[in-house]
Each structure stands twice: as C-alpha cells, then as structure tokens.
Amino acid sequence: MIPDWAGERRAMIEKQLRRRGIDDARVLAAMAQIPREEFVPLEDRIAAYADEPVPIGYGQTISQPYMTALMAAELKLVGTETVLEVGAGCGYAAAVLGALARRVVSIELIPELAELARCNLRRTGRDANIEVIAADGSLGYPPLSPYDAITVAAGAPDVPPALLAQLRDPGRLVIPVGGFDNQELRVICRHGGQVETHVSTMCCFVPLRGGEGWR
Fold it and tell me: Which of 54, 124, 148, 154 is least surrounded by Cβ atoms within 10 Å, i.e. has the fewest?
C-alpha cells in the first residue's frame, strides 16, 4: 500500500511546524509543495515525515522537518536573494530554499552526496535555480560571494571566518555552534557594518567538517 504522502505532508505542516510556532507563510508553502519522501533513501522512506532526522548515508542525515523550517524562516527570505547552503546532503533543504530565494548555491563536502542531491533535485524538477558544488563548505564559495543569506546544516566549533567574510551587508547567517552532541542555533545579522547575534534554539547536528570546521 502506497502511503498518503500528501496527507503526511499536511500533517507535518500542522503538527510539527504550525503548532511549534513556524508562521512564515512562504516557508510553510514551500514545505507543503516539496515531496520530502523523494529525498529520503528507499529503505527509510516510510519515515520521510517523521519528527526526527533520517539517515541518508555516509554518516549524514536529512534534518528534522521542524529544523529545516526554522532555519529557513530565520533567514527571512523575500525571494530576491542569493543563498549559500553549507551541507547539501540529499538536497531537500536546498529545494526548500530554492522555493524561497532567487538562487541557491549548495556546497557538499562528500562527492557522492553532492551527486545524490543533484539527482534528487533534477528528478523532482527543483534544480532550475540551485547549483550543487562538491567542495569544502566550511570555506564557503568565494567565486559567487557575497551572499545575502548563508545557512549551515552542520555543527561548527565556532563561526567560520570565511563564511562571515562572504556574508553581504545586510545579510543573515544561520549556523549551529557548539560541541559534538549539543549546539546552539545562532542567527547572525550584519547591517550597516554592525554584526549582531542571537540564539534561536538548542539543537544537535552532525559535525561540520573541513578547513574551518572540525578536523
């Protein structure tokens, strides 16, 4: 029996997002459109809309739906931005960002996952404004900088200077910072030459690897 994916998507929006305070209409609409099940490995597809991360191979996960929505909402995108995503994974979060921004540049350290993300985005018709690059995301991607918004889907020991340097003024950077097992989701806002930071929530992400991440 094929699951009612559309029904599960609606339930996710209501129970996991709206009830927890996600009220950005554009973010909710994007997550209601995108078939999350198409980005989850076949053997775990039944858990596509579970309220938890799902393994995607290579020691990585697709984030809990709430965390994907929260990070997207914290960027406060209006549709004109160029966004840098660090950690393409399976491509799902990039698809959400692609529905919210003009252009998404998604960097993935693991070449096999970069190719998986490209395939998933292409198969679901979400690749028109998303470029997936296999590279060290902790260093950002200088050739296309500066970025209006940057989001990092892995926990860093500190905010990578390279990412902060590639953030436009005004711009917003959302990144988990802390130890291996527990981080705070920081929202860093640059405006008028000033940088302000606040903590959105506590979280737990896989470690950010690379030159300015965990070595």
Answer: 124
